[in-house]
Amino acid sequence: MQPRQQQLRCDRADEREEHVPLRIPDIALRTEESLRVTAADDRRHPVRSTAVGFVKLAPDIHVGGKVAKGALVATVDVLGVAVEVRADHGGIVAKLRCASGDPVEYGQELFLVESVGEVKA
Fold it and tell me: Is the pLDDT of residue 81 over 90?
């Protein structure tokens, strides 16, 4: 009878334990194919926020729009002061990561520029 009492105590202990679901990191779920770097990825350069605040993209920033190296592509409103964001690379906007009015952090990707040669302003 004593082993049964010990078994009951173990069962009661299991009932009191909280079960937390296991979260698998996103990187573990990616397949080998999705991790391959393509030639297009080598040509894509992120344009990053230079401050913490609310972003306002330039009017000509849209997917397929041309961007010249050093061009003013966005401003970040920091307590009423506009901080400029300039493009480090010229090319074509490949993917938008935010929209005008969105809150952004320092270093956050605003959009991707795909280099296809330097675009003159």
Answer: yes
- In the chain the domains, ranked by start, together with CATH numbers, are 2-114 (2.40.50.100)
In angstroms, the CA 50 to CA 70 distance is: 14
Residue pLDDT, tens place only, 16-47: 556 556 565 655 556 555 555 555 567 889 99
Look at the chain and count its residues: 121
Q: Report residue 47: phi and psi, to 5°.
A: -100, 120
Predicted pLDDT at 119: 47
Q: Which stretches of the chain are assigned E, i.e. beta strand?
A: 44-48, 53-57, 66-67, 72-78, 81-86, 91-96, 103-104, 109-114
For the chain, give the longest Cα–Cα distance.
88
Q: In the structure encoding, which two tokens stand for residue 84, read together?
A: 């400029």
User: The whole model's pTM is what?
Assistant: 0.61
Alpha carbons 101 and 119: distance in angstroms, whole number:
27
Which residues, 6 or more positions from 117, have their beta carbon under 8 angstroms from its beta carbon? Answer: 90, 91
Residue 112 CA to residue 44 CA, distance in Å, equals 6
